[in-house]
Amino acid sequence: MIVKYFLLLLTIWSWASPSESEDAYAWTKHKLIAHAAGGIKGKDYTNSEEAFRNSYNNGYKLIEIDLSLTSDGELVARHGWDETYGQKFKPDAKALPYRKFIKLPYYLHYTPLDFERVIKLMKQHPEIYVLLDGKGGSAEDTKKLYEKVGEAIQDVDKDVLNRLIPQMYYREDLKLLRKHGFHDILYLAGREEYSAKSVIEFCKKNDLRTVGISKARVNEAFVTELFRQGIVTYIYTINDLDEMYTFFEIDVHGFYTDYIIPEEINDWERQEEKPRS
To answer: Is the pTM of this model over 0.70?
Structure first.
């Protein structure tokens, strides 16, 4: 396994110039992504400040944050509006106004975040990368959301900007994300037609080195071919260690998870690295 990952790193480094290779996609050395800021005390999808801090304390370096717009156009950390996730309002897919949202704790305990607060948390924890999952029902929604993101990051330090990793569902959105200064992007395959060949060609052309796939879509041949081309895969969402180990065996690189913590994966990797008698 060590040899395989060494060869993968050589392939990735060959894509970039020496100056770029030091930073571009460096975050992919981490294998677990805290899904929706991570689960906390049996609650998931909160995208809350407490969930973020809990994930940080549990050793995560990659934390996913869902982004939605409030009815008055403010960027907040929320997984859309059609579920309450413990907030006290009637879900009907209509966005809440900012002032109402920000005062409604999840499950009476967990503090809602806006995008500005997410940036502040990143400044407090400079080893953390945040993956952005923009929620929208159309290309126009995505454009509107990332226009807001673009406005919000205009004065953000480059160090923080380089640790913001957008997730992209449609290839047509690449130009939009590049426009707002994002280089590293995680391409989530599945919402449009794809094949191993088409994904590899698109990724190579645009220096995309990570692909996300739902576990229902995992195909060993597809994952292996991506791996051979230096493109790593993250599978979502898995909360069972044995299931993760099965996917590791077919060259899956990492996972979105609510509850499996990095130390558990580290323990497994150390076992794999032990010489066999």
So the answer is: yes
